[in-house]
Amino acid sequence: MAQIQRNRPLYEQLMWRIKSQIVSGVLIIGEKLPSVREMALIEKLNPNTVAKAYKALENQNVIETVSGKGTFVRATDGFVIDEQLVASLQQQLGEIIIEARRASISAEELHRWLDTGYSGYLNLQRRTHDTSH
């Protein structure tokens, strides 16, 4: 279980852990997630908290629940653009840039961070695409 961040609701922390595991390749497209009850035991959370996180991830098209079968990591659809998400990401990036400049982190260093993050994601996309054929 990851360390609890007191400034974020627990369901959001679980959402970010799941998203992070997907992007890093720990969870792959089509993989079954633990049931709400199992995840609650693993993460030491209330089942209602896990259910709230799963529902929010479903609404964001990150996971999907198949009746009688379970909850699975959903394939990303590059054509679905959530304008509200894009605006939120732009705002967060702006905040990161401000903090980075205050910390004397160069634009080049930020680019390296982005390149490193994206290269991990792109390698995951290639790996899941290769195994689906």
Description:
The chain has five helices and two strands; from the N terminus they run H-H-H-E-E-H-H. By secondary structure, it is mainly alpha-helical. The chain folds into two domains: 10-73, Winged helix-like DNA-binding domain superfamily/Winged helix DNA-binding domain (Arc Repressor Mutant, subunit A), CATH 1.10.10.10; 83-131. A two-stranded antiparallel ribbon has the order 1-2. Helix 1 packs across helix 3 (47-59) and helix 2 (36-43) crosses helix 3 (47-59). 11% of the residues are buried. The model is unreliable at 124-129 (pLDDT under 50).
Which labels suit this protein?
mainly alpha, single chain, elongated, Arc Repressor Mutant, subunit A, 2 domains
| Rg from Cα | 17 Å
Distance between the termini: 34 Å
CATH superfamily of the largest domain: Winged helix-like DNA-binding domain superfamily/Winged helix DNA-binding domain
CATH architecture of the largest domain: Orthogonal Bundle
Q: Which outline best applies? A: elongated
Task: Please give the domain count.
Answer: 2
Largest sheet: 2 strands, antiparallel
For this structure, the CATH topology of the largest domain is: Arc Repressor Mutant, subunit A
Estimated share of beta-strand residues: 5-15%
Spatially, the strands of the biggest sheet line up as: 1-2
Average pLDDT value? 84
Which series of helices and strands comes N to C? HHHEEHH
- Helix percentage range: 55-70%
**How many helices does DSSP assign?**
5
CATH class of the largest domain: Mainly Alpha
Which residue ranges are poorly predicted, with pLDDT under 50 across at least 5 consecutive positions? 124-129
